[in-house]
Amino acid sequence: MRNRRPELLIPASSLEVLKTAVIFGADAVYIGGEAFGLRAKAKNFSMDDMKAGITFAHDYGKKVYVTVNILAHNEDLEGVAEYLKELKELKPDALIIADPAIFQMAKDICPEIERHISTQANNTNYGTYLFWWKLGAKRVVSARELSLKEIKEIRERIPEEMEIESFIHGAMCISYSGRCLLSNYFTGRDANQGACTHPCRWKYSVVEETRPGEYMPVYENERGTYIFNSKDLCMIEHVPEMIDAGIDSFKIEGRMKTALYVATVARTYRKAIDDYLEDPKKYETNMDWYLDQISNCTYRQFTTGFYFGKPNEEAQIYDSNTYVKEYTYLGIIGEEKDGMYRIEQRNKFSVGESIEIMKPDGRNIETVVKRILNEEDEEMESAPHPKQVLYVELDSHADKYDILRRAE
Asked: What confidence tens digit (pLDDT) does each residue in 342-351 have?
């Protein structure tokens, strides 16, 4: 087993979520700009927000990686070159790239920024790792189709200084390393250009050619079937095996998720990793807490993906495309003024309601909402308007960046 401490790499869809990731335990955060990343529907970062996010993370001793991982067409390349020149000035810690042309452009334009190879590049063997290493890549993200046994074999055949990044938690794409045509075919929005509409989560039936309009569910259920709907990856019970395989960076999927989701997974995996490195027995003892906490954010039931062999039918969810949701995200604690905490409301809550303060150190503190004021200092009985700036009085102390949530 290697002595290198694994990095916890957390996604962020906005500056607010980046700050949450850093405060709640990330070693590094990966983000996308407003172009050339594979999450076109995510809010993503303006250049100003990206600059602020990189500064914030660096102030806390954390890293920021920027995705430039589309599979480019001819008309993209000129824009990519300009984008890379802008990123050169912002000094992120690495660029995540899938396209060989973009890789070479990054090497020419901003060689001082590390280049990491995206999972979209289908990195399934040690020869591929060595290929990218010789071209100047510092890290390669393993394809999700690899087992831990295969990753361990790769680790044994690549240079010690080369890094392996692998997913440890999050949604699983139904298609091979995310190379999916469904969205483009059905809606004209290309998953490989960052515009996936997630048709793998839609409901499907079979229609026989001579019986138009007669829909036959693929799997018998009164609601139809969701034949492409994978369970979410969760390896919280297998941190030791991930470390033993020689993985350098544990990556969480979810660049379109809320701050509550990011805080939950970051805090839980941070504690699990730290507990295991401190004492494997402590990790085993705290397993019930990890499992309880990781289910506090939205998820689709859990699977271990390909890590222990190819998934079987149990890795799919056939009767629903909905998430399990145990908590509702209410907002993030901001500045304190006269005993009132500033928040930007995310879901409705009311005076007198019992909610929770979620803290980065693992504590969840029950509290009661005593007062709500709007920006004009007017009393409010509830907070019904999304993203409204409010000031709330709680009967427990909160700190800046704590999360407010409500159990459902």
From this structure: 999 999 999 9
